[in-house]
Design brief:
Layout: H1 2-7, E1 16-18, E2 30-32, H2 47-65, H3 70-85, H4 107-117, E3 122-125, H5 128-132, E4 145-148, H6 153-158, H7 160-168
Parallel strand pairs: 1-2, 3-4
Length: 177
Amino acid sequence: FIKDWMMDEDVRTYDCLDFLPPPLQCPSNVYNCYYGLAVARLPAAAPTDVEDLHGHVLPFMRDIMCNGNDAVYQYVQKDLANRVQQPGKKTNVALSFLGDEGVGKNFVVNHIYVPLMGKSMCSKAADLEHSLFGRFSCPGRNNLLVCLDEIRPAEMARYYDQLMDLITAEMSQGEIK
């Protein structure tokens, strides 16, 4: 098989790898590491799942995460829709939820974003210095979402410039081992 494959004149070859979710276009000489959202591979939601979403998850998002503020809730819903409908389009915005430890700030990430996008396209960082901005860290590499878990405001301030670059820059670089 290997000999035949290597001699095949029509074998596909690529010049490089990239992660190009839609609406980004992937040139024919680039192998696209983006393989679609997890939700596209799921069966249709059962009626009980839809009831649970509307009865528990969305009210939690509105009442707890958005503090009952309908304008904030609408914004968060639109942000989620945009991330699913156009995963390759950077929003240049980072949602920040502040609250006491254990109130459920990660609930929306764990029960909405991760199931929709897929575990392989989401990551968490609890230590900015080592997880996100360390020497061999590649922040956001092949990720659609990076959740900063329990980061203190002082640490956010310390890494302000790097965080802004991660949120707004078209490209990022990292050193790979």
